[in-house]
Amino acid sequence: MSIFDGLKFRKVSSPIHNIDPRIKFIYVIIIFISAILFHQILPLAILFLMQLPFVFIAKVQKQWLRSLRGAAFIAGFIFVINIVTRLFYNGWPTTTLATLEMVEPALGMTMRFIVLVESFSVFFLTTSPDYLGLALEQSRAPYEFAFAFTTAVRFVPVLAEEAQTIMDAQKARGLELDKGNVLKRIRNYIPILIPLIVSAIRRSLELAEAMESRAWGAVKKRTNLYLLKLHKGDYALIGIIVLVLLVTIYVRLFVFESIPLLSTFF
Amino acid sequence: MSVISLSDLVYTYPGASKPSIDGVSLNIAKGEFVLITGPSGCGKTSLCRTFNGLIPRFYQGELKGQVFVAGQDIAGKQTFDVAKHVGLVFQNPENQLFALSVEKDVAFGLENLGMSREEMRKRVDWALNLVGIYDLRERSPHEVSGGQQQRVAIASVLAMQPEIIVLDEPTSFLDPLSAERIFEVIYKLNQEQGITVVLVEHRLDLTARYTNHLIVMDKGKICFEGNPREILCNEKVCQIGVGIPKATLLYKKLKTAGFDVNSQIPLSSAEFADQLLKVLNQ
């Protein structure tokens, strides 16, 4: 089932994949904040380019490009809306400089959005769900949440397979899924959904039984087979985070006004 | 000394009119390999769930009689307390694995018990090696075959080092070859580790040879209990709907036709083939 392919979980190892998800998350937040602090194209372009090494080291270029392509539509929308509002307020530009002054902020806004999408996509593309679950477990989140998260990830392919089986079975009995108007088509899926939900509930009961039989809830503070320990890569990223933070604060406070704009070159 | 002892057990599921377990008394000795069989709905699954207290705690309903596990009455105990003594392996391997890697799943019970990381590591590796899936430890449970999944389930119960392992039709989702491998693993655990095994199974062809304590259940009652060689020859057992091993059936047919190999009743094809060869070579 192709729709669920993206949800299938695979263990990948790369220097970026191996970084503690918590530190990676802080990094994303810092990039996020920096992107919001600036509206000029130059710093935003730097922020954009800064993510590229991560993408290449983790070897996720393909998926990364796909996620950017997905964001392209909204990015285009943001650009057009910005241009249109400016046209509305300032009227049609007469000189090249005026055009640049109109296009530049719009471009900046679009760039900012792309940086946000980019950094989040790098985070999710390079963090495997089991690692994320582990980070959840070890950052004092209640274990039930972490368990629910990893179990959900674990059962996505199982449920996808089951949905396929039920679809085949109902089709074999003459159910036509792709017939009728939109409303009818949605209604066609009811005979798929009901057995799927019933079996999921039954499955959850069996899971609960298996958990009980393996001493679920025996002690208040459970232990964990794995320990997230900080490695070289983690320290390197912490260094980068501190650097980005310092540079952002400095530039924002002292040289914000003198950041060159495209229009200053004319 | 018996590790599991039931006396006059009667259990009715909530909303059911007839009891699913109807007056069962049973003693299972330490180190035994017990095989429970019987037609579907005869109460074998319910019986398994009384061993660690899932019945009545998880299912509610009404339970009368006493269950003693490892010398203690489990009536007032939580399931997790009993789980240290009795490991339960279920029918569907898929629904008893919930982690994203095999070794994390095996560690699940130990994590729940709050065991230290070093001890846990040792036990996980030990359990994985014992069932022969050490190489799969970093795979996702979804990626491995059904037989391997069931081995993960056995390992995860084994890691908790229970005295008793109860397996409720562990091979009904597996092909005959994987099933045979699972039975070999279970038999090895019983022989080499001295773990008491209670196996619920329809496939007597593959399992009868491992036991000398067979229990046949029907309609919530124990109908026959004892040596499989005696029980499986009984006409009444066939009528209940028990899958008699083919070798035993053939032996009986040959005997009624006047051909007697003059040895004990065989439980597996290999055993009967040996007996026949001996007779034919004479």
Topology:
The complex is a heterodimer of chains A (266) and B (282).
Chain A: H1 21-37, H2 41-58, H3 61-90, H4 96-125, H5 129-138, H6 143-172, H7 182-188, H8 190-213, H9 232-254
Helix pairs in contact in A: 1-4, 1-9, 2-4, 3-4, 5-6, 6-8
Chain B: E1 2-12, E2 21-29, E3 33-37, H1 44-51, H2 54-57, E4 62-69, E5 72-73, H3 79-83, E6 86-89, H4 102-112, H5 117-130, H6 146-158, E7 164-168, H7 176-192, E8 196-200, H8 204-207, E9 213-218, E10 221-226, H9 228-231, H10 235-240, H11 246-256, H12 269-281
Parallel strand pairs in B: 3-8, 3-9, 6-7, 7-8
Antiparallel strand pairs in B: 1-2, 1-4, 4-5, 9-10
Helix pairs in contact in B: 4-5, 4-6, 5-6, 6-7, 11-12
Query: How many E-type strands of chain B?
Result: 10
How many domains of chain B, as an integer?
3
With helices defined by DSSP (H or I, 4 residues minimum), what is the helix count of chain B?
Answer: 12
The CATH class of the largest domain in chain B is Alpha Beta
Shape estimate of chain B: globular
Q: N-to-C SSE series of chain A?
A: HHHHHHHHH
What is the oligomer described by this structure? heterodimer
